Amino acid sequence: MIKPTVPVNEEARLRALKDLKILDTDQEERFDRVTRIARRMFNVAISLVTLIDEDRQFFKSKQGIEPRVLPRDTSFCGHTINNNDLLIINDTQTDERFFDNPFVLNDPNIRFYAGYPLVLPEALSIGTLCIADTKPRHFSYEDQQLLKDLGALVEQEIQSIQLATIDDLTKISNRRGFLSLAEHTFNMCKKNALPISIILFDLDKFKQINDFYGHHEGDLVLNMFAKTLLNVFKDADVIGRLGGDEFVVMISDSGESNNAVVLKYLADEINQVNTDSNKPYNISYSAGIVNYSSDTHQTVESMIEDADRAMYQQKKQQR
Questions:
Q1: What pLDDT is recorded for position 313?
Q2: Which pTM was predicted?
Q3: N or C: which end of the chain has fewer CB within 10 A?
Q4: C-alpha dist (Å) from residue 298 to 186, 198, 295, 301
């Protein structure tokens, strides 16, 4: 058995997948409808919408199989996400990657597989629409086109989720997406008695950049700041653009001293961005940070309001 290789854009791929917040969620009719059609249309034993996480495959929709989670190392779909097109295995017993795969040798005894990589607009493959059967078969050109059409339907549904929660410009969470992810993190922190911090960022003199250099430059500034936040903060931290030139980060399980270190690192990184970009302006920002214990009675919204007040207090002191 040959394990699937890790895509070169794995870090960005995993971040995009987790930002969708559909891992470990219930099956949904919009995806189940497609897998039911696929199973009936191709007369196969198994049809799945699979999401490839760091070390597992999660079945967002499944027909003909019981588990909802299986290892990534033994997955067929782990290979599919490295393809730009369909992955078709007419007979798994004649393919060196799969002939001794446990899912070929044992239940569900896969002999045929066809997978369509589900790709986000950012060219990040997060999973598959796949079908499998217990006997070898020929997959015709017409069959391939039909599977692609069904895969495109699944991609549209995933992109509709993305559009609702992802900022179109910076590709990080928008306000709605941030609040949803932050609420989940907040509940986890309360359950495990972990401290929470909220940092609100406001870009200084952003209007002047737009007015003097144009909105294209303003968009560039927003993108550079968002990218720097992603580079500085951990994957477990929740990062979002609230709107305009306001950004927010929720940090879990980090004390005030650690937060100060991270903010210093961010300042250094922004200074480096300014040096490297050689622009006639510098990116600068104000930040407001508030820290909470796990037993706080605050809501995520009220914590953001506190951080907003702290940020404007810093702006006043700077003036």
A1: 85
A2: 0.68
A3: C
A4: 10, 12, 9, 8
